[in-house]
Amino acid sequence: MVKVSAVVLVVLTFCFGFAYVVGQQVMRSMADDPQVEIAENVIDVLNQGQDPQAIGSATPTDISNSLSAFVLVYDSGGEPISGTGLLNGDIPAVPRGVFDAARQKGEGRLTWQLQENVRIAAVVKPFSYNGEDSSSEGYVLAGRNLRETENHTQNLLKLTIIAWAVALTASLIIINLLLMGKKEEYAREHEHHHEGEHHHKH
């Protein structure tokens, strides 16, 4: 019984743990989808010669609190130019390595932790415009607060634990019932065997 229970525990833990990890990764990946579209739309505008300084908003998004998506534009050196989102009143700086990776791969996706409780799903893409009268190049970062996604992930974890506990309990009950049935069957066979020996002696 103990060995069987241990095997069931390991198998169920692996299966539910794997399901949770897959679900968590899918939700995190889906959190990038809107930013990909936003970044590409902004880059299309910039590649047509739009002044990067014009990418802004009269009422910037507070990155630390708002769930709205935002766009930030940086020059080729990684210095902020403009944007629709602010953190503590300023466009936040991005680690240089993020831009280097985006330049090499054509795109960068990351979880950007700006403060202890501020995590952003960010997509970074390079842009370059060379016109007759002007030229510009740099990077577009589209981001969105991960708060809701992380809440969904926590809910998924809770549901996974509950489902794991229910499945484990049900499995142990079924195993116990099967073992009890086998013991009763063995007892009956043993009893019939003794009765047969008793009649044979008589």
The main sheet orders its strands as 3-2-7-6-5
Residue-averaged pLDDT, rounded? 85
User: Structural class of the secondary elements?
Assistant: alpha+beta
The CATH class designation of the largest domain is: Alpha Beta
Mind telling me which CATH architecture of the largest domain this is?
A: 2-Layer Sandwich
Instruction: Estimate the strand proportion.
Output: 15-25%
Structure, explained:
Keywords: Membrane, Transmembrane, Transmembrane helix. The chain crosses the membrane at residues 161-179. With 202 residues, this protein is α+β, with helices and mostly antiparallel strands. It has 2 domains: 1-31 and 151-184; 32-145, Beta-Lactamase (2-Layer Sandwich), CATH 3.30.450. Helix content is 54%, strand content 23%. The chain is built from 4 helices and 7 strands, in the order ααββββαβββα. The chain has helices spanning 2-30, 33-47, 96-105, 147-201, and strands at 61-62, 70-75, 80-83, 85-86, 108-115, 118-130, 135-145. The strands form 2 sheets. A 5-stranded antiparallel beta sheet has the order 3-2-7-6-5, sandwiched between helices. A two-stranded parallel ribbon has the order 1-4. Strand 2 (70-75) and strand 3 form a beta hairpin. Helix 1 packs antiparallel against helix 4 (147-201). The two termini are 40 Å apart. The mean pLDDT is 85.
